[in-house]
Amino acid sequence: MTQDVPNSPADTMAPQRLAGILTFLQETERLKDTIRSGSTRKGRPESTAEHSWRLALMVLLFEKELAGIDLLKLVKLCVVHDLGEAISGDVPAPLQQDGDDREARERQDFQTLCSGLPEDLAEDLLDLWDEYAGAATAEARLAKAFDKLETILQHHLMPPQSAEFHAFNLTYGTSRTDAFPLTQQIRRIVDDRTRALVSEAQDSNG
What we know:
Helix content is 62%, strand content 4%. The chain has one domain (16-205): Orthogonal Bundle (Hypothetical protein af1432), CATH 1.10.3210. α5 (102-114) packs antiparallel against α6. By secondary structure, it is mainly α. The N and C termini lie far apart (83 Å). The protein has a two-stranded antiparallel ribbon.
């Protein structure tokens, strides 16, 4: 009796499927040019792609503290969560408002980005995006918590900012980072540094 043999990683694939994947990959490159409100430590504007990369790295570093969490799912959520911004761009947190339909626009942009993918892959990615947006799973809630922490940590590395800039971070995303003991612990350390930066900025202007 013959048995089905799983595909080898070296097997070829249907040309149309491959073309759709490569086209999608080229379109997502726009995320490298999607600028966020923060910057690198040298003052160069930070891209959303850079934020997503470091967010994924961040959750990998805490793998041993994330018992019971589907780490692969968590990393996937971190990678795809801001992909819609490749089309619509980033809206800085201080400018976001309730009722601005930002999430609906980002979902539509994400669907547009995925439109050329093979149907099964497009559905998989959209499911991930919806899971992150809905925050109904532990993995999605963790992704959102780490997303806030990575953003604030990046703000700590920027060239000197105003006291108001750093003070905003003391309340930014607290509902997300309060969701887990681990992210609460990290947040306490992050907030201590933020408070120090607020004091430094006030002293420099005093």
